[in-house]
Amino acid sequence: MSDYPITPVPFTRVKIQDSFWKPRIDTAVNVTIPYDFEKCEETGRIGNFAKAGGLMAGPHKGIFYDDSDVFKVVEGAAYALQIAPNPALESYLDNLIDKFAAAQEDDGYLYTARSIDPVNIDARCGPERWSNLAVNHELYNVGHMYEAAVAYYQATGKRKFLDVALKNADLIDSVFGAGKRRDVPGHQEIEIGLMRLYRVTGEQRYLNLARFFLDERGRANGRELYGPYCQDHMPVTEQSEAVGHAVRAGYMYAGMTDIAALTGDDAYTSAVAALWENVVGKKLALTGGIGARHEGEAFGDNYELPNLTAYNETCAAQANILWNHRLFLLTGEAKYVDVLEHSLYNGFLAGVGMDGRSFFYVNPLACDGKYPFNRERAMSRQPWYQTSCCPTNVVRLLPSLSGYIYALRDQALYVNLYMEGEAAIRLGGAELSVAQTTEYPWDGAVTLDIAVSKPTAFALKLRIPSFAQASPDGKPLPSDLYRYLDETADPVKLSVAGEDTPVEMQKGYAVVSRVWEGSTRLRLSLTMPIRRVVAHPAVAELEDKVALERGPLVYALEAADNDAPVLELALDESADLRAEHAPGLLGGVTSVRGNALDSRGNSVKFAAIPYYAWGYRGDGQMTVWLKRQQ
Amino acid sequence: MDKLPPNHEPLYPAGETVEQLKLIPYGSTQLRIAAFAIAQTEEDET
């Protein structure tokens, strides 16, 4: 079985112990997962399974895609079980899985919106099975079920849920394919799920079916195309511009990357590379968010990157992370992790409330204190949404976050993210322990203690984030969409076993090749100056604007810290800027301070906070981009 | 479905948890090597 040439070190072998991410992970596990289940109970999402299974009376409640929310939380809960055993949670999940099994029809079909009452069904679901795939999420929902079922099987070794998923996949495989029904889901996700089933079972039919659903997009074989909103306007391997609904696109691109890895099809490899160039070169918000438009939750035109009205759905940032991780696994290039890291620390993290019970669905780069940019016509993080894809999606990523830190390829160990903690890794017959000590993202000093069970030759590849590199290599993101105004950054410093070591760069990594013996300490110093960012001149909304970054973090000014209206502030090119760590502010943040010019040209003090930490202190103005005073 | 357990090695075995992470204590191997080196030296001297 061919697969990605690079294998992530699984999250079960990596423990994050820092003060930045660990509280977020703990909150996701201890607060958000039980909270999400509570909301799923309260809103009838879980009751729908009981009703479909004849365990409870009553009509379907909510929307036809609500099944997927429950599956997503189960997937996150399965990861939580692998951080630490939790018999109460496992027992709750077993009970839930009994309801899934009950809701499944005899032939494997599972879609509570139809099964509860096929006669009085929401018209959008279509009168019969598979009759309105463009809209009804019939295949999308089960894609999330497959992911959850695999996660639960891997967490517990219990097969019941996996068997439900396989029975469903077998049904869908019997219905769809060449010589059978030729159609595609309106919302991609089943492709990723099928490939997870393929990986866990080795059953080729699931890979073939995933490929069929992707190959079939944009081809009118006896049906009308669903159009660019669903990325169904041309064959996927011919697509080179990111269009339509951003979450659908992100999941599709991730699925296409899986196909490239699992089949070695160059057409898929070329297509995802072209799509990535387009997204990162022309359609990526500085925060790593994708999907500029509210209308259709969609990508805008090239260089259409608004601030106040930017959509940048939290789920789309997560999709972007999933996709870029796969691209890294396919190529070993650090530029994909640069994008992943930017989306993670900014566009994604802003969407998850520190309390674990509030979420941004929409993530603009400015707020005027009036326009209710968020879903449900709100300006603040909301406890839940009628469409609650984001609150239930984030619990899939956070508990498994440590799986994004390390990866292996032959005799090479990649260190992609800097987060304090420990890892136990198997490499070439040796056991490796890697301990990271760092205050990242506040400080770029990283100590790595590596211990090996026996002398082992391997290349350690330390990602040097683009922000730590001098221009022109140093860029906020790996394209010409944004650039730093300053030309230089202090050089990256590396010492190995106490000796200063020249930094040899390959594909964005500093490479240390040697025979490792016993224990070795490495010290990596990534400088974190405050850097001014400007955008490509083709971005009309960002003309004569400047933003601030420090390390992987994008900064924002908001009303709570500033007397002057922040949307009117201008930053002089020569203004001194300084970083100050405030342990008591917003869970502990490093703020950026300096002087700006107000609308009358008066010099006023300003403070900026990391973008992810905005929106916790009341409604008011916020902006990432300031006017640029040259 | 009888093919399980998988014919493709999963990323991690079922039931593995972060909590069980077994690490080589930093410095331990080096200390053993150092102790061995000292013993060797002493042998050489005698």
Description:
The complex is a heterodimer of chains A (630) and B (46). With 630 residues, chain A is α+β, with helices and mostly antiparallel strands. Chain A folds into 4 domains: 43-226, no CATH class; 233-398, Glycosyltransferase; 406-463 and 491-525, Immunoglobulin-like; 530-629, no CATH class. In chain A, 33% of the residues lie in helices and 20% in strands. Chain A has helices at 21-42, 45-52, 66-83, 87-103, 112-115, 133-136, 138-156, 160-175, 190-201, 204-216, 246-263, 266-283, 314-331, 334-348, 389-397; strands at 7-8, 14-16, 366-368, 406-409, 412-415, 421-427, 430-438, 445-452, 456-463, 482-484, 493-496, 499-500, 505-506, 509-516, 519-525, 530-535, 545-550, 553-558, 570-572, 577-582, 589-597, 603-610, 621-623, 626-629. In chain A, strands 3, 10, 16, 17, 18, 19, 20, 21, 22, 23 and 24 form an 11-stranded mixed beta sheet that branches. In chain A, a hairpin with a 2-residue loop joins strand 4 and strand 5. In chain A, helix 1 crosses helix 3 (66-83). The longest helix of chain A has 22 residues, at 21-42. The relative contact order of chain A is 0.10. The model of chain A has no long low-confidence stretch (mean pLDDT 96). By secondary structure, chain B is mainly alpha-helical. Chain B has a domain at 16-46. In chain B, 39% of the residues lie in helices and 0% in strands. Chain B contains 1 helix and no strands. Chain B is elongated. The chains are: A alpha+beta (630), B mainly alpha (46).
